[in-house]
# Entry
Amino acid sequence: MDHKITWVKPEEIEARSMELIEQEMPSGSWSWEERQVVRRCIHTSADFDYAKNLYFSQEAVEHALQVLKKGGFTIVTDTNMAASGINKRALAALHGQVRCFMADADVDREAKERGITRAAVSMEHAAALSGPLMIASGNAPTALIRLNELMAADRIHPEIVIAVPVGFVNVIESKEAIIRSGVPCIVARGRKGGSNIAAAICNALMYLVTGYTSVG
Amino acid sequence: MDHKITWVKPEEIEARSMELIEQEMPSGSWSWEERQVVRRCIHTSADFDYAKNLYFSQEAVEHALQVLKKGGFTIVTDTNMAASGINKRALAALHGQVRCFMADADVDREAKERGITRAAVSMEHAAALSGPLMIASGNAPTALIRLNELMAADRIHPEIVIAVPVGFVNVIESKEAIIRSGVPCIVARGRKGGSNIAAAICNALMYLVTGYTSVG
# Structure
């Protein structure tokens, strides 16, 4: 097989990629906005399973876009990697911020003392924040499990939960529990997901409001 | 379907996940060390395609482990997200560092002036570093294309290239060019890869030397 490199202008690479993704994506029953979210998950993974496994609760995307438009929101992630992948220019344009408590010394200490994960403790820190809250979990089912408990106890009220942890232990279960909770959510059903997917969904939503892309 | 959450101690989640991955992985023809790398890519993506698409040049892993053992190396990534995903505790234990030039103002300026990508300019910055060099590309085929040119011109001599960009435009081609170059390399053939995969491979290699895991 010949593997010849074709010159593509830097600013055109993403658009070209999206065209190629569109050609392989099913027509689906998504809204136009939901489709942009699906497409960006495929863009970040080259994995077309995201055209099958992404669940959107009714009007979750519409609601998230309203929250982003109003500004002043906080996205809480369960890895620094996801926080790092969130487009800071789009975030600043929307007057939003991203927080991740995973590497905080007090979170680590408390997790060890209580024999729970740092991700679970992180959700309690998220509950103490003021202003509109978006939870983006790409890693830790224990974050979602604790989040569900805190929601049930009326201690946290996220505007939307992006529930896309990846893995093999309690991952499917924790995502299904988020769906059942009734919170507005975007969920990668099954085992797949990841920090890259969590960041991609946050970015897709922000790009819908700002008109930005990952290249500018 | 019943989705019941099973309590698993935080420190046991990763080991349990790895057991489940092992059950589904083919026996393969990998060395034990290569198998750990494959396993960690699956762990970070829940995508068993990595049991099929990962290419290891002969003794690439053995060579990488030698470089890590000696310390004083620099891992250069093509996204801040990949840099963020690299385990800093393992890195410090090995007296290594990670660098990413993508967000540097001068890289951005130079890329715009020359009409090339920031990732391509980044590789030139990498070439100016002293000490053993590991390139970990999870995002930008243009980084690999420029890297190949710099290697051909004898301007950069990486100890190993982790070539796992994800995507649709020149991705396959740039990876195959790295394989053909003869540099020690670990490559996710095809479209798949990503910053998470690049970080996972770096971490798998470091864990092999340090005995660490992602949880401690």
Q: What stands out?
A: Chain B touches chain A through 51 residues (CB under 8 Å). Residues 47 and 92 of chain B are 29 Å apart (CA to CA). The two ends of chain B are 34 Å apart (CA to CA). Chain B has a mean pLDDT of 95.
